Amino acid sequence: MIRALYTAASGMSAQQAALDTVANNLANSATTGFRQRQLQFEDMIYQNLITPGSAQSQSTVSAGLQIGLGTKSSASEVIMTQGDFNQTSNPLDLAIQGAGFFQVTKPDGTIAYTRDGSFHLNNQGTLVTADGNILLPNLTIPSNATSVTISQYGVVTATLPGQTNATQLGQIQLATFVNPGGLSSIGGNLFQPTMSSGNAITDVPGGNSGMGTLQQGYLENSNVDVVSEFVQMILAQRAYESNSKVVHVADDMYSDINGMIR
Length: 262
Hints:
Elements: H1 2-27, E1 37-43, E2 46-50, E3 55-56, E4 59-60, E5 65-68, E6 71-78, E7 85-87, E8 94-97, E9 101-105, E10 111-114, E11 120-121, E12 127-128, E13 134-136, E14 147-150, E15 155-159, E16 167-171, E17 174-176, E18 184-187, E19 190-192, E20 201-203, E21 213-216, E22 218-220, H2 226-261
InterPro entries: Flag_bb_rod_N (IPR001444), Flagellar_basal_body_rod_CS (IPR019776), Flagellar_FlgE/F/G (IPR020013), Flg_bb/hook_C_dom (IPR010930), FlgE/F/G-like (IPR037925), FlgF (IPR012836), FlgG_G_neg (IPR012834), LlgE_F_G-like_D1 (IPR053967)
Family: Belongs to the flagella basal body rod proteins family.
Subcellular location: Bacterial flagellum basal body
């Protein structure tokens, strides 16, 4: 019965983590470029009362007797499905159709990656995120530009007063990873690579590395499926209740035993 208490407690702890994950996904259902996370579980160590395949007398045990000691959360994977597009008509808003991440430089000089394409101009005319992280490679828009065009392949051009032909300012590059599900979320709609994700592979949009293309005047919505998250929330709640019931039953059995001793 002590085993039952700790096993059920591990189940309650795991379902609490599942509910925390669902809560974060739902909280970010309207966050631009957000990637939902999916919690995965694994069973814990088993107590071998009779080891499967062990020899007893003249025969070999076919099944054995193992009692599991609960569950634990093993991974929180980033789901990289495409989010829906939202038209904004803002020329500095960009959405990636397909694979890839925008590269930005943080204030400490490190490079981070994001699917949030809501860019702005800083006081130098450089394209930055809402938090001021600079888009790589650096692109500066002249203050007197009358229009800015960004092609699906990332070529940035601007029309200046008195010019009939647009001036090319540069080309946006994207990054991808062998295992994007292994990226580490650091907040601010940013990811950083890990040993699991591998190093960044950079290329122009629509290039030979499998990068997606850009859509100017659009933003990518969160890929959170709200209905699915509510289903997961209900499942976590029911599993939590079931494990708490096991704790209650085991406690009742202890009470019965204590009553017998008296």
